[in-house]
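Listing S7. Sequence submitted for prediction.
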Amino acid sequence: MPKKMSAETILGRLTEVRDRLPAGPPVVPGNADEARAMLRDLRNADLEALSDFELETVLEASQSLADELRTTVEAAQERAFEMALDIYYKAEELVQTGEHPELVEHLENMRAAYERSYGEAVPSRAATEARRKRALTP
């Protein structure tokens, strides 16, 4: 049976979830189980008891939180992608020196995974650095 919750309670729960979002790099995992439990409570709430104004407020807050979550995830994915490129370039450097032949297979696997995912060759370090520099330029 749906649990009766006031708009104030629902908005409070949304704020609690929002407060758990990382403010920026680095992303540190919080207690995801608690956040999931709060969202589950909200999903099971009886929204029929809310006035139209309260419902509109709750819907706007929910959409705002969803947008914030999407932005947070996209930023984390971008940081992970950039870190993976840096690891790839370092492995490439170590293989080229001949000091770490055991990395050749890993490097090939990384290259193949990139090409499968993006449909093109891994960009050169110089191209990546140029892209990063352009991204910093307003």
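Caption to Listing S7: primary sequence and predicted structure tokens for the chain studied. The longest helix spans residues 52-97. Residues 39 and 131 are 38 Å apart (CA to CA).
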